[in-house]
């Protein structure tokens, strides 16, 4: 049993590193939706732990609606699209993140 444990422990540690965090996926989705990478990173950091999986998937769907190049969507346009989901919590969390990132620069 001991040799197995010595072999399995490093594999488990590597497996933990291989999973992509919700924040990283959200950041990538926001960039894919057209937000500038700096803004997307700031917003993802503030939003990832406050939204459900379903809400995160809805945000990800905005990227499929994108009609511009990466970095070309303004935060105002993004918030307009988020409001279309009519999810009060999603709108609140996204708006607060956008406002906080705008204030912090």
TrEMBL record:
Q: Which first-to-last residue range defines the signal peptide?
A: 1-20
Keywords (alphabetical) are:
Signal
Name the source's superkingdom.
Bacteria
For this entry, the protein name equals: Lipoprotein
Q: Which organism is it from?
A: Sphingomonas sanxanigenens DSM 19645 = NX02
């Amino acid at each position: 049993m001991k040799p197995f444990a010595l072999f399995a422990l490093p594999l488990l540690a590597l497996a933990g590193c291989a999973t992509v965090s919700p924040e990283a996926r959200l950041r990538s989705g926001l960039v894919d939706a057209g937000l500038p990478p700096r803004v997307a990173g700031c917003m993802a950091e503030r939003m990832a732990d406050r939204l459900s999986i379903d809400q995160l998937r809805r945000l990800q769907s905005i990227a499929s609606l994108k009609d511009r190049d990466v970095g070309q969507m303004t935060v105002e346009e993004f918030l307009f699209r988020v409001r279309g989901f009519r999810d009060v919590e999603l709108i609140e969390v996204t708006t607060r993140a956008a406002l906080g990132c705008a204030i912090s620069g």
